[in-house]
Write a structure and sequence with these properties.
12% strand; 283 residues; alpha/beta; TIM Barrel; 6-stranded parallel sheet
């Protein structure tokens, strides 16, 4: 069944999710009963084997989508230079998943500057059919509303390629009083949220505040934006992150409740009914 949007997390398993996801033959099978997509962060660090890809394909329904990241060696070490051979090898390995691939997450580091844009255009223009990308940039110039950002946006529009909307504002309002929060604030970029209307499915990566309820006010504008996208038939991808991604399913559940209030036809997440009530009988 085609859904009007796709909701996911940055990974498909965490020990904290054991009491939240329904039963299944594997962590991925359990996850894919609840969510419609997942960020493939694993491929940023290491390329799976073809056999692993075949196993993953067998564990998800036909309408599930993987949004894998290109390997770090391609995006960060080589800054998209001399990428033809490693890209071909990567795509060959993922071939068993072709029918459940969403756009690849082409996450570019702050070291990827406006001077490197010709590499991006070459990369996108030579990516074979039917593969496509969504692009995340982190260099400050791409958020300055000047010539660099205009050139980036123009090139993405010409190629009907979405620009990732990464929203870390909630995260950076948190007091950095734990190692987990400090680590998240160190690793995640703090950049403005710039939306780019383009003929491609939007991709939102929301990085939450560690206090679940605090996220309500930060999520409220996204509820309206996603509602508009759904009405326009754009079918966005929405990913929920937390400083501790063991809390990502709880954040996704909160998000789905908020969106359900706005769009009653969209049911909240189908999480396991018997969840532990920690501290219910504590002194």
């Amino acid at each position: 069944m085609t859904t009007p949007y796709s909701l996911g997390c940055p990974q498909w398993q965490d020990a904290k999710w054991n009491d939240l996801l329904p039963p299944g033959s594997s962590a991925l099978a359990r996850y894919s009963q609840v969510f419609q997509c997942v960020e493939g962060n694993t491929t940023f660090y290491a390329t799976p084997t073809r056999e692993q890809c075949e196993q993953w394909r067998a564990q998800v329904p036909d309408d599930f989508r993987f949004l894998f990241k290109f390997p770090r060696a391609i995006t960060h070490d080589q800054l998209l230079g001399h990428a033809n051979e490693p890209v071909r090898a990567f795509l060959d390995t993922l071939e068993p998943l072709n029918d459940v691939l969403g756009p690849f997450l082409l996450q570019l580091p702050a070291a990827f500057t406006p001077e490197h844009l010709t590499r991006l255009w070459r990369f996108l223009d030579t990516l074979p059919e039917p593969y496509h990308c969504t692009v995340e940039v982190r260099h400050p110039a791409f958020f300055g509303k000047g010539d660099a950002e205009k050139a980036l946006n123009r090139g993405l529009r010409e190629r009907r390629t979405a620009r990732v909307c990464l929203d870390s504002r909630a995260l950076f309002t948190a007091t950095p009083d734990t190692d987990i929060i400090r680590d998240a604030q160190r690793k995640k970029p703090q950049r403005p949220v710039h939306l780019l209307p383009v003929d491609a499915r939007p991709v939102v990566r929301y990085i939450g505040h560690p206090d679940l309820e605090t996220n309500r006010r930060f999520l409220a504008p996204w509820v309206e934006r996603v509602h508009s996208w759904i009405e326009e038939g754009q079918r966005p991808f929405v990913f929920m992150h937390m400083p501790d991604n063991g809390d990502a399913v709880s954040l996704a559940s909160l998000w789905s409740e908020l969106l359900h209030e706005r769009i009653p036809a969209l049911a909240p997440l189908n999480l396991a009914q018997h969840q532990p009530q920690i501290g219910l009988f504590s002194d």
